[in-house]
Write the structure tokens for this entry.
Amino acid sequence: MAFFLTTLMTGIVVTQNFALGDALLSLVLQIIIGGALGLGLGKLGQLLINNIKLDFEGLYPVLGLAICFIIYAFTDLVGGNGFLAVYIGSVVLGNSKIMHRKVLLQFFDGLAWLMQITLFLTLGLLVFPSHILPLIGIGIAVALFLIFVARPIAVFLGLSMFKIPFKNRLFVSWVGLRGAVPIVFAIIPIVAGIEHADKIFNIVFIVTVISIMLQGTTIKKMARWMGVEDLDYRPHKKATAFEFSEMIKTETAEVALSANSPAIGKKVFELDFPDNALLVMIVRNREHFVPKGSTELESGDILQFIAATKEDLKQVSLQLY
């Protein structure tokens, strides 16, 4: 939606004979066509990945990238929004049972990071401190308005239909990081040749920096202050010793016992682990062994678990931290 609004507003400024009705009709058609083709082509992409036989596993990320280009190009050709189609198609693929899922996820995760790095590098090449200093006052005012007025209003209106506690809504309204996306949108007016587009870009830069510095560095503190932090659960490191098919919904965790862990000195049978969580391996002094009920836990032990759900791992953490 942010992309639609940015391109629409840019079009209003650039086009001399602007027709609001035609623009809104085009917007609706782009959403409908882009959404429908994203859903349909995403399903076709799933069938293609699962049925094509490539000799080398490393070619499947290339195939996945080709599917993205095809979805975008075909959707744009028939008048839909290619970005929306690729997004929905990717969501469909990401939530479908596909072959070589792990290698595809690793490839696109790395590609996403590369694109973000490229965008921030572009930002650095376009920003000049001498152009920013005269606009600091305006940039700070816009940033404070977005952080404390515009976003909270939008979040509370958007969540008004859901039964979400007030403090949760307040926390969501605070988590408003702005990074790579505004950079792309701020470049659009520059490319379109709009007057004072450089000022818009510099203001966006100031807003982005303030949001990251203020909101990005205080998320944990705000969660604790608003009482929405889950103090009973700590994220576990994946147990790298176990490799399961992506189709199997199994959780693994690797927990290192600290010196103040309440489990130190206890035998395995004395710990009240849930039925669906199994302690399968202990690493002690770089040696691996399968524990017994009589195995006594020591400081520095690395415990490796297999569990049915993340909730089971949460119950495990209560015994170990």
